[in-house]
Design a protein that fits this description.
Helix content: 10-25%
Low-confidence stretches: none
Shape: globular
Distance between the termini: 21 Å
Strand content: over 45%
Number of domains: 1
Order of helices and strands: EEEEEEHEH
Strand order of the largest sheet: 2-3-4-5
Number of strands: 7
Mean pLDDT: 86
Radius of gyration: 14 Å
Length: 111
């Protein structure tokens, strides 16, 4: 599991080496949705995996892709709700990158 701490900046970019892949994630704040959308770029293949994909608390993003991982927006406060303001990203939100099997196992532990 890998964690990306996010801030209230309008745009964030980070390069990651995970699951034998070199990736660049670009997060953009969407003021209408009050949430983040992201682009994920495969540096090794020089191509986008996805563009403008949304993030929602507790919902695995990229589950439908043939990738070994998912991205999950996590509410560190424990409330489990999406942001209500841009400042929430600076104080209580983070992105968790989990291997798909690890994510599935976490669902079984919640039952």
């Amino acid at each position: 599991m890998h964690t990306i701490q996010i801030t209230s900046d309008d745009k964030l970019e980070q390069t990651l080496s995970l699951f034998d892949m070199n990736l660049r994630i670009t997060l953009r704040y969407n003021s209408i949705l009050r949430g983040y959308q992201f682009d994920l770029f495969d540096i090794d293949k020089n191509k986008f995996i996805t563009k403008n994909k949304g993030l929602s608390v507790g919902s695995p993003s990229l589950i439908e892709f043939n990738l070994p991982f998912v991205l999950i927006l996590d509410d560190r406060s424990g409330r489990g709700v999406n942001a209500t303001s841009k400042e929430d990203f600076n104080s209580r939100m983070q992105i968790v990158i989990m291997e798909k099997g690890e994510w599935r196992a976490s669902l079984r532990h919640k039952e």
